[in-house]
C-alpha cells in the first residue's frame, strides 16, 4: 500500500508548487475549479448519509411520534424508550451476547488458520502446497449459499446443529484470509528465514516468533473483516439455530420484521443497537479497512 | 553485499533440493485449513451432487431417481420465475453499483474536491451495515403509507407510489438499496486502482489539451480495466446469491413474485424438506455462476489482448 501512496503524495505536493509560479488570477481559478467536484462529492455523500441519519433520528422518536405528520427530521422529544424496549422485550441482550461469542471466537480462529495457511503457501514450495492452493481457489467458486442443503446435512451429521459452533466452524474456511496473508508473506524477504535457519531456529518457531509478529497489520485487517462478516451473517445462522435462546442479532431483527404487525419503535431501536459495534470498530480501525487489499479476496 | 551475492545465486541454482527439505512444517501449518476444506467443502459438494440425483428428504432412506429432479426443475414455473427474477436483479444491480462506485471513487480521488476524507466515511458506513439492517432501513424509507419518500412525493404534489405492492417497483427498491449498501466495497477497489494510474499520463494528456472527461475515457477507464473486471465479477456473484436484503425489505413480496434463487433453495430444501430437489436447484445456481465466471474471464482476456 505504501508504494501506491508515495507517488500520490509527491503529486499533491508538486501541485501548489506549480500554481505558485502562475499569475495571481490562477489562484482564484483553483478555487473555482474546486466548486463543482466538491459540490458533487457532498451531494453524493448526502445521498448516502441521509438514509442512515433519518433512520437513526427516527429511532429516537417516541413510538407515538413515528408516523405523526408532518414528518420532522429531528425528534421533538428525543427518547431512548425504543432501545430500552428492544433490549428488554425481544431478548436482545441474549442475541447480542450470542453474536459477540460467535464473532470473537470465529475471528480469532479465522485469523489463526488463515495466517498459518497463507504463510505455508507463500514461503514453502512443493507440489502438495500448489495443489492445495488450487483447492482454496476453488472454494471461491462455490459460496456457502450454493451448498446450503448439503452443508446443512454435514454440519448436522457432525452433531453441531443448533449450536454456536455450527455457525463458527464452517465460516473459518475463507479464501480471502489465506490470500491476504499469502500476499503479505510474499513481500517478506526470504533472507530473514534463511538467517534464522542458519542460527538454528526450527521451522515452526521461525513462524511463531518472527513471522506472526510481523504480520500484525494483516491480522488486524482480517480480524475487522471477519468480525463484520460474522456480525452480519444471516442465512447460515438462520438454518443452524432452532432454539430462540441461541439466536444471533440479525435473526432477532429479522424475526421482528417478519411479525404480523411490525412494532417500528422496537425494530428501529434494535436495529440501531445492532449497528453500533461495527461502526465503533470501523471508526477505531478505519485505516486498516481503508488500506485493505480486498482485491485478492473473493469470498466472505 | 559481496558476501551475500554467492548466497543468493546459490538459492536460485538449487531451489528444489533446498526447499524439499521442508515438508513437515508446511504440512502442520496447513492442517487446520485442509481439515476445514475436507469437512465443509469437499464433503458437502460431493453429497450435494449425489443427493441431487435422489429423492432424499433429509431423514430416512432415499432412492436414486436419475435426472428426475433436474427434469422437474425444467417444468417448475416457480423455479423459472425465481431464476429470471435473480437474473433481472443482477442485470439491474451490477451496472448501477458499477457506475455509482466508479463515479464516487473518481470524485474522492480528485484533488479539487474538498473534504474527501470525511465524505468517504459516508459512503463507507452503508457497507458496514448488515443486509438485514439495510432491508429494514429501506423498508422504513419506502413505506407506502408512512415512508419518507412517499411523504416527499406527496409534498410536491405527486400521489403515493406503491413501493411494496407493485412487484417491479419493490424489486427496484431492493436494487437501489443493495447498490447503496455495496458502493463502499467497490469504491475501495476503484480508489486503489485509480491511485495506481501514473500521474504522468494525465499530465501528458493535459498538455495535449484533453479535458477531464476525455482523460477519464482515454486514460482512467482503460487503466483500471482489470479492477473493473473484478468489481463486475464480485458484484455479479454477490447479486446471484442475494437473499437477506430481500428477506428484510419485502420478504420476496408482494406475495412470492420476488423470490430469488437462494430463497427458492431455502424453501424447497428446508421448508418442504426436499433436500434432493433443492440440491439440484443448487447445482443449477452453481452452473450459472460458473458460466458467468467463464464468460467474464473470456471477455477480460479479449480486452487485455487488444
TrEMBL record, chain A:
Skewed-composition ranges (Basic and acidic residues): 1-12
Keyword GTP-binding on entry: no
UniProt keyword Chaperone present: no
Highest rank taxon of the organism: Bacteria
Stretches for region Disordered: 1-25
InterPro entries: MetI-like, MetI-like_sf
Name assigned to this protein: Sugar ABC transporter permease
Automatic annotation (TrEMBL), chain B:
CDD domains, A to Z: TM_PBP2
SUPFAM superfamilies: MetI-like (SSF161098)
Compartments, as annotated in UniProt: Cell membrane
Location (main, coarse): membrane
Domain ABC transmembrane type-1: start-end pairs: 83-296
Keywords: Cell membrane, Membrane, Transmembrane, Transmembrane helix, Transport
Pfam families with a match to the protein in the record: BPD_transp_1 (PF00528)
PANTHER family per the UniProt record, alphabetical: ABC TRANSPORTER PERMEASE PROTEIN, DIACETYLCHITOBIOSE UPTAKE SYSTEM PERMEASE PROTEIN NGCF
Protein family membership: Belongs to the binding-protein-dependent transport system permease family.
Name this protein carries in UniProt: Sugar ABC transporter permease
Source organism (scientific name): Streptomyces graminofaciens
